[in-house]
Amino acid sequence: MFRMRAIAVCLSGLAAGLSTAADCPQFQNGVVMGTPAEPVLNEISGLATSRRHPGVLWAHNDSGGAPAVYAVRSDGAFLGTYTLDGAVNRDWEDMALAPGPSLSADRLYLADVGDNNFVHLQSTIYRVPEPFVDLEQSPVTQTLHGVERFPLQYPLAPATVFNCEAFIVDPATEDFYLLTKDSAGRDGGISYIFRAAAPHLPDSTAILEEVGQIQMQTGISGIVTAADMSMHGDAILVRTYLAALRWARAPGVSVAEALSKSPCAVPSAPEVQG
What we know:
Layout: E1 7-8, E2 32-34, E3 44-49, E4 56-61, E5 68-73, E6 78-84, E7 92-99, E8 106-112, E9 122-129, E10 140-144, E11 148-153, E12 162-169, E13 176-183, E14 190-196, E15 206-207, E16 209-215, E17 224-229, E18 235-240, E19 244-248, H1 255-259, E20 264-266
Parallel strand pairs: 6-10, 11-15
Antiparallel strand pairs: 1-2, 3-4, 4-5, 5-6, 7-8, 8-9, 9-11, 12-13, 13-14, 14-16, 17-18, 18-19, 19-20
């Protein structure tokens, strides 16, 4: 999770090995664009950028918050609260914006995957069509209907369950991926990659498949706290408490194979709890 105090344009926790600078893209310095002033946004844990509405960011709070997503303009102006009908925020940790079934219009995906005490046998992904937002609207309060629920279970549960804060949707396949933070054994230096392959059946528990591991540095700098994928699926970003990493992904390469390579360190804004 992270607490957002300002929105910055920038995309360092480190993996066990980094690509050389010559193999990595160059980034400009981050630019602070605004600060969300809405009191309800007190512990933002997931963030996604709308493609349907340029200039709109979607956000959700961490555990204990309402089962809602919040629309925020890129300058920090608050645009509204959108509650997911029938959803529960046990411990929402990440979100994604990606195509829906059969690569249709974008959906919002909310990942209820956190488990600090390692007691939950299942995690849940919620999916709902992205609502319309007007950049100039006064803050609205709406209920989003048509919410789909996808329960997920780790393959060795209940013997082994994981705490997870990183979720991505592959825009090419619509597969779900979880990158774990830790388990009861703490897993120092390892983030496990689990996949739920599409198609996804609402209200039907899918058993996750372990498809790989990321060798991270031990300690707080290597603990995975968020992840995202570019809209074309050609880059994967992973956040840790202290930094951000980027993996390139070539056409035809699986997510797990891409994450087995050496990443590039990318600039990230300093945060109290990244």
